[in-house]
Inverse folding.
């Protein structure tokens, strides 16, 4: 018997609004099935289940907002006897309407910083210059959550656009990047990579194929980064509770910029093991779902390294900010033809500035350099990717 | 197909690939990448959709010929004509 709880879809998530159940009591579920859809600051996220079994009971009502960890449903494990005498566990009351604000006692308010408040709420309050002693909390035990700070913020918030609230997404980005810059001692390495061979190969390959069979330079970047991350240690994994946990698979976060502002980096699972065509298909799928706001919870949480590409019409390079709890991010600048010395002669070659930002708690410059050089080497033999 | 039908088809596929762009906001000379902020993935998805809908396989070398709505309509008319 397992309790299906509201998952944390990122360090900056306080709660989520349940907008769809895809299962009903009696349904059989398998690990990895999408069972519900939750609305977060990063749009609607499909929530997967992580055990096999049968849905015994649905506890959480649609439309309710539930904090991370709140029980949403009960799952009877495979082979477990039916729970005949269903325990009369009361369903949690959804926070459809915020509870009446509980004024903080003056004695508490006098002590600065002594409020129960979520990290995201504190970050938002600091950013907006809001005194938390003036904010009423609606979270557990009257803790101040992000929505409370936003309500207290001066100025009205713009309405949601196409299912994505870009203001809310900006808040989430701000919280994650502030945490990154607070906690992660970044170091940076830059390398110019000659992409002429890769570009020639790609053009020849795509010329024979209809549009649906073509691949992009960005696909080569993802595959090369994934292979290099699988080979050079200290780049691929997550840093959790003071310990770096290296990952066996490379779940490559692919940064997708949204028109109107906003950025999301869902993970392309096991990218190092996929052939190029499948990497491309997975990228198409991720970008499409990122734009329409239908990503999976695991794609939001299981990334082990991120790639940010500035595209075909951007600028030369970027020093990116690591997405916690990951420990490295690779930024590819816009490829341009530049004069480059090849075998003693100056030739016009298509090149890109590639910048690594990595976590000094886990690796140092020598290892980072090895990683970047490996990406370079792999891109010189695109036919082997 | 008439030029108007091609224009409608192109705009429908464009706004399908980029659902946050409204067809009425697209000017005839707006550049897909510089003005409408399509990235290379969006452009490829648009070319793929046009292939499926109109049967016109646009090679990479011709991408600059569909970089605005007006150019694309002229190019598609030429290819279909």
């Amino acid at each position: 018997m397992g309790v299906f709880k509201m998952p944390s879809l990122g360090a900056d998530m306080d709660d989520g609004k349940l907008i769809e159940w895809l299962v009903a009591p009696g349904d059989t579920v398998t690990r990895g099935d999408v069972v519900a859809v939750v609305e977060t600051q990063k749009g609607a996220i499909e929530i997967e289940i992580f055990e096999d079994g049968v849905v015994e009971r649905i506890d959480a009502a649609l439309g309710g907002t539930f904090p991370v960890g709140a029980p949403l449903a009960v799952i009877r494990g495979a082979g477990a006897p039916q729970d005949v005498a269903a325990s009369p566990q009361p369903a949690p009351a959804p926070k459809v309407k915020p509870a009446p604000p509980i004024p903080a006692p003056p004695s508490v308010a006098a002590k600065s910083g002594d409020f129960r408040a979520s990290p995201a709420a504190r970050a938002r309050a600091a950013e907006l210059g809001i005194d938390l002693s003036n904010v009423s909390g609606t979270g557990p035990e009257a803790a101040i959550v992000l929505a409370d700070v936003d309500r207290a913020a001066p100025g009205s918030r713009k309405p949601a656009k196409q299912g994505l609230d870009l203001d809310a997404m900006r808040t989430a980005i701000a919280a994650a990047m502030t945490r990154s810059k607070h906690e992660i001692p970044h170091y940076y390495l830059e390398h110019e990579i000659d992409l002429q061979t890769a570009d020639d190969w790609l053009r020849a390959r795509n010329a024979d194929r209809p549009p649906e069979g073509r691949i992009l330079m960005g696909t080569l970047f993802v595959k090369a980064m994934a292979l290099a991350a699988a080979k050079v240690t200290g780049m691929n994994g997550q840093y959790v509770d003071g310990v770096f946990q290296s990952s066996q698979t490379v779940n490559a976060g692919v940064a997708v910029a949204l028109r109107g502002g906003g950025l999301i980096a869902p993970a392309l699972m096991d990218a190092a093991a996929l052939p190029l065509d499948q990497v491309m298909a997975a990228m198409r799928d991720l970008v499409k779902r990122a734009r329409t706001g239908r990503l999976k919870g695991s794609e939001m949480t299981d990334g082990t390294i991120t790639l940010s590409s500035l595209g075909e019409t951007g600028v030369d390079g970027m020093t990116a900010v690591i997405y916690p709890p990951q420990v490295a991010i690779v930024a590819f600048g816009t490829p341009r033809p530049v004069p480059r010395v090849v075998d003693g002669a100056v030739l016009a070659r298509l090149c890109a500035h590639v910048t690594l930002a990595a976590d000094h708690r886990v690796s140092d410059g020598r290892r980072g350099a090895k990683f970047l050089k490996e990406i370079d080497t792999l891109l010189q033999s695109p036919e082997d990717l | 197909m008439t030029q108007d039908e091609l224009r409608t088809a192109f705009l429908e596929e464009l706004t399908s690939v980029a659902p946050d762009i409204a067809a009425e906001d697209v000017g005839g000379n707006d550049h897909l990448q510089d003005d409408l902020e399509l990235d290379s993935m969006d452009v490829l998805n648009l070319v793929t959709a046009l292939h499926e809908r109109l049967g016109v396989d646009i090679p990479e070398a011709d991408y600059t010929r569909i970089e605005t709505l007006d150019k694309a309509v002229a190019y598609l008319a030429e290819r279909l004509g």
